[in-house]
Amino acid sequence: MARTPMKTAGAAQSRREPQLQFKDEVLDQLAERANVAQFVSFSPRLELRFARIRGVRRDAAWSLAEAIQALIEHSGEGLVNVRSFDPIQPKGNPFKRELRTVETAIDNIREYAAQGLYTIVNEAIDVNDGGVSGVSYGGLLEFGPGDTPRIVEKPGTVSLPLDMGLRILRNVYGFTPDLRYPVETRVEFSIHPLRRGVLRSHTIIWELEKTGAVQLEANPVWPNLFSQHIGDKVFGLLVADAIGLPVPHSTVVSRKVATFQFGKRTGTGDRWIRTSPTVQAPGKFTTQRGWTDPYALMAREDPQGTLIASVLDQEGVDAQYSGAAVSGPNDDLTIEGVSGFGDAFMVGQAAPEELPHSVVKKVSVAYKMAARRLGPVRFEWVIDAQRLWIVQFHRGQTMTSRGTIYPGNPRTWMEFRVESGLEALRLLIEELPSGDQTGVIIIGQVGVTSHFGDLLRRARIPSRVA
Question: Is residue 340 part of a domain?
């Protein structure tokens, strides 16, 4: 007669039921405290489990078709996604996006149910509506446009301290995203120009996960996907504004998002039109004093719509002095400028002047304030009778020091005359052989912080001003 083996602790553990995770139940609980995308869910037997549709009773006795019809009717785009899950293995299961008809959705639900899978049908929300998706966690905000919250797993996602990120998003979209959760809560979210979800608000919460206490460190660098979305110059000025530096009041006319405003009034009422390329292109596109049609400007200088992300209509400053500042090796700060407006100086049409001590001090104070928050930075500035204003802003240290734009010991040096212009320098940079075998000497009265210096620094070409 066979003996029955004794049960051991290990055997009991091996027979323990696997922990089940019902994603639709979690989503239903989440809807009690956050705005989620409208949804209905079904068991493998095609029984309605949960329903969260704006303005509709949760206990409605719907058939499969009636539930999906109600969801499509209440969806902003009239489209739904069908996601499947296995309570034992809730992740990595098949799904279908942007289904338009009840019949198509039912076909997919039946297909997944035949495999023993549960299904969640949620309203489809356009990720290309100009908004962003991302993750908030540990005092950090990471996001990008044109994707789901999984965009944070891809290169180019912007990384900002939470308060700075919320201020920037409020300036761009006109509302503060609803992301005030404890630092130990990981929040997957998306924000949208048009209100969506069960609570009909601009912030959709896709997942909340509570972990242990954590504090993460942001790394706000650009270009990134969001700076390319709204314009490199615009993003830099939004960062400057977010850390408390004075930026002239600006109206941003953008290709990808609705027109928005930020900054402080200068009191002049004058207009400056400044193009904001997707990535920094020193001196390539128009900056001018006085109004011009921003849409005509973008059509003329970027007919394909790929190079200029936006145009700033910026209030002018009564410029007493203007110039630029860059951080060099060992945190050496190079400050250059001229009296009056600085546009001629930046494009090499005016030589740097000796600046009063009071001007140098104001620039130094602004630099130290920014560096405490961001580390080494570089910026263009304008000073009126009262204060210093930031008109362009970037993060990062350069190799510029004294007359050296970018260091190196090339075999040969080429001379380039300033009067040839910025476009000629761009062509020269493209034609130079790769590596650091050839350097460039800039001949003419021009500053190392000018756009000539910007181009050579970005290309990492050994260069100096004669």
Answer: no
